[in-house]
TrEMBL record:
Residues 155-376 form the Sigma-54 factor interaction domain. InterPro entries: AAA+_ATPase, AAA_lid_NorR, CheY-like_superfamily, Homeodomain-like_sf, HTH_Fis, P-loop_NTPase, Sig_transdc_resp-reg_receiver, Sigma_54_int. This is DNA-binding NtrC family response regulator. It comes from the Bacteria. GO terms for biological process: phosphorelay signal transduction system; regulation of DNA-templated transcription. The modification 4-aspartylphosphate is found at D54. Residues 3-124 form the Response regulatory domain. CDD domains: AAA (cd00009).
Length: 448
């Protein structure tokens, strides 16, 4: 239940307010003097949501100076606490000055019950919203500060969704457990694996990468476990496998869903025992390797289809880190774009709008390539939308116009996708912002 502190020397006033607020499920504390009110506020600081204070406390005093001093004392100690000023002697200049100083409202006695209750409820709701926002921001700031103690390998991010993944990655890095990083291609899964390695007990060991999707099935076992000379055609000398190379460090198995069933069975044995044999050899070898794997595949669906071993899946997936697509973490787009663009170049507003409006099917990898191209093609220090080579940006280039003007549904859909940001919606539709505004006006679509 929200709580209001009433500071007034008139007992009849405090009683009337207490009864009024009780009818609206609002608790009330009361004090008869500024000193008593400040003491009560300190005692119940965590519970008090709003203060209603008189402006005059001494007999035959109407200057309001006591109320001004009390208000300033409250603001000094509790700058975010809303304060309503209540007095029988209304001085307009004093009211204006105190409103400028942060008073929530200034009401004259006798008050209007309906207006007072409405004002109090509005301020309480606003205070609750502000507290929730502050708590969320404080939590995010605390997490960001916690992340500063870790080696993040220079990763660039701003979106809370990415921050959550980073926080979890740093948490699990210290534990000797297998980690599966899932997410679409090009989202930065290898960078997350590097962060896990950099903050793990084997940070000084090797970090070895094997892309299971880039090799023929018949060579994957040799890549993983090595091969003795003559083990297969072309093996003229013994070769070390990735497990041996990663001994004492981390082995990152990218596109693990592409590992053939025979390789899955042997990988499972290594994970269970730490032992393996090279192809063509009978000598057993033992290694200590941290496994981090990654996939863009639906491994549970592959298990149901019989193409991925369920026991291996649970061995690899002790902890899963789900890295969202770039479009699902829009706060990262512009920081990454500026990072890839480098020094000496800047994004114009139309370029920023085009970047935010693009769907990024190729994720961070696509963004990196787009910015590399824009850096080469932009004539001056500023990069405009046309320099990006994106479909929507090209359509919005000066002198171009769409073949068909977007209808009401298309505009409404674009505005919804852009969260009401007209510049983003215009870039998606291939219009300038002014042209979209004119089209919205003709169709009777209200501005967001």
């Amino acid at each position: 239940m929200p709580t209001v502190l009433i500071i007034d020397d008139n007992a009849a006033i405090t009683m009337a307010l207490e009864v009024l607020f009780s009818l609206h499920d609002i608790a009330a504390l009361s004090a008869a003097s500024p000193g008593e009110g400040l003491a009560l506020l300190e005692q119940h600081a965590a519970a008090v949501d709003l203060v209603i204070q008189d402006m005059n406390f001494s007999a035959d005093t109407t200057s309001g100076e006591e109320g001004v001093a009390l208000f300033r004392a409250i603001r000094k100690r509790h700058p975010d606490l809303p304060v309503i000023l209540l007095t029988a002697w209304t001085h307009l200049d004093a009211a204006v000055d105190l409103i400028k100083a942060g008073a929530a409202d200034y009401l004259a006695k006798p008050w209007n019950d309906g207006r007072l209750v409405a004002t109090v409820k509005n301020l309480l709701e606003l205070g609750q919203a502000n507290r929730a926002l502050r708590q969320r921001l404080q939590g995010e700031l605390r997490q960001r500060r916690e992340l500063e103690q870790y080696d993040l390998r220079g990763i660039v991010w701003q979106d809370p969704a990415t921050e959550r993944v980073l926080h979890l990655a740093c948490q699990v890095a210290r534990a000797d457990v297998a980690v599966l990083v899932s997410g679409p291609n090009g989202t930065g899964k290898e960078r997350i694996a590097e962060i896990i390695q950099a903050n793990s007990p084997v940070a000084d060991g090797p970090f070895v990468v094997l892309n299971c999707g880039a090799l023929p099935a018949e060579l994957i076992e040799a890549e993983l476990f090595g091969a003795d000379a003559g083990a297969y055609t072309g093996a003229s000398k013994a070769r070390e496998g990735k497990f041996e190379a990663a001994d004492g460090g981390t082995l990152f198995l990218d596109e693990i869903g592409n590992l053939p069933l025979a390789g899955q069975m042997k990988l499972l044995r290594v994970l269970e025992t730490g032992r393996f044999e090279r192809l063509g050899s009978n000598r057993e070898r033992k290694v200590a390797v941290r496994i981090v794997s990654a996939t863009n595949a639906d491994l549970p669906a592959m298990i149901r289809a019989g193409t991925f071993r369920e026991d291996l899946y649970y061995r690899l997936n002790v902890i899963e880190l789900k890295l969202p697509a770039l479009a699902a973490r829009p706060g990262d787009i512009l920081p990454l774009a500026r990072h890839f663009l480098g020094t000496g170049k800047a994004l114009r507003p139309d370029a920023e709008a085009a970047l935010l409006a693009h769907a990024w099917p190729g994720n961070v990898r696509e963004l990196k390539n787009v910015m590399a191209r824009a850096r080469l093609l932009s004539a001056g220090p500023d990069v405009c939308a046309a320099d990006l080579g994106l479909p929507a940006a090209a359509a919005a280039a000066p002198g171009s116009a769409p073949d068909v003007e977007p209808d009401r549904d298309a505009i409404s859909t674009a505005l919804a996708r852009a969260n009401g940001i007209v510049a983003q919606a215009a870039a998606e539709l291939g219009l300038s912002r002014q042209a979209l505004y004119r089209r919205m006006e003709r169709l009777g679509i209200a501005r967001p």
